[in-house]
Each structure stands twice: as structure tokens, then as C-alpha cells.
Amino acid sequence: MKLLQSSGEPIYQQIASQFREDILTGRLKDGDYLPSIRGLARELKISVITTVKAYETLESEGLVTAMQGKGYYVNAQDTEMLREQHLRKTEEYLVLAIESAELAGITEKELSEMLNTLVKIKKEDNI
What we know:
With 127 residues, this protein is mainly alpha-helical.
């Protein structure tokens, strides 16, 4: 896990974001346990309180559950809910791309062509 001190994003949010991505992409599956709070804090050289805050954030989102004496484990994910979350994330990135294109003077047609080209390259790379 990589933390960026200069990112401007609080460390607990960086931790939660990385675990969220691992859960939503399936790298962490239903029933998998997250590292112990103290173990993760020691590994990342951060406060236990910061780790607790990250885990509680994930719990409030319904991604993990705390089990007394055992730690936090990943909840089963609703596939439709996962799709919605991925759609939301995609929309966020596309809005950023549109804003960047506008700043660079890229036309809608050019942006569309760029997207189509990138999709085609990605498909070819996965073949």
C-alpha cells in the first residue's frame, strides 16, 4: 500500500480508497479479512487511530464489517451495486477528461476520437 504525504488527501482516506478499489475490483473477496489495525499501522508507520478511521469509513459504506476479536472482513458485494459504483467512478473520470479537454481546446469530436482510439488499443492489448 502506498501513501502520499503530499497528495492533499488525508491518509485515512488514501487507505480507505485503496481498500475500496481492492474490494470493488474483486482483489479482496467476500469473507477476506483486512490486515489487523495494529499490524497495518505498524507496516505503514502511521497512527492506529488513522487506521481505525479508514476501516470505519469502509464499514460506514457497507464494504466491511467488524467482528469482535477477529477484525474487519469484506462483505459480499451486490453485483448491481458494484456496477453502479463503477459507473459513478467512470462518470467522474469522464467529467475530468472533458474539463481537461476544454482547457486544452480539444473539440468534442477530437475527444470522442481519442476515447474510441484508447478503447480500441485497450481491447487489442487484452487479446
